[in-house]
Bicaudal D-related protein 1
Amino acid sequence: DLVGELNTGDYNNSSVSVTDLEVELHRAQEAVDRMTRDLETRAEELKRRGETIMDLTGKLSVKEVELSGTKEELELARADLKDAGGLAKDEMVQKAFEVRDGAVARKNATLLQLAHTRIELMQANSQLMEAIQQKVELSQQLDQWQMDMQALLDEQMRRKLANPEPEIPSSGQSTPASAERKRPSRRLFGLFQR
């Protein structure tokens, strides 16, 4: 298990390679990027629904004012009915009730729409909080992997410094023995220059 081996902190005996860790880091970074885009989408959705709630709240206030006005009109109509009689009275009563019922129905429809939108907003907010938590956890894991990778690289560098590879002289380079052989000739050449 890659994460298990890294979490032990024993980089000397770990079978995890830098390449394996780079692959995991790349996958984790892609997941973080996808989650970031998802969070941005969810945030936009929350903003849109919040604006819808504000709009519906404003409409509800208008409906309440409208309903209050129709109730006042109904009371005035009832007062006028005292002086009316017969068919005219019945028609006025019927019309007043229709106006009132229409206002009540519009208010109730707005209330229902507002309630649905609020429920959707709560659900979207819950989903956003869950997505944020997932991103935080994934980001923490990504940070840990990056630290593990750096520790692994440091360990490999320490090993190279502790056990340097012997240099193989090339054909154009002089070995210590050949250098020793050349030194007298250089000294001799120096004598001729004096």
Notes: Residues 86-162 form the longest helix (77 residues). The radius of gyration is 42 Å. The mean pLDDT is 70. DSSP finds four helices and no strands in the chain.
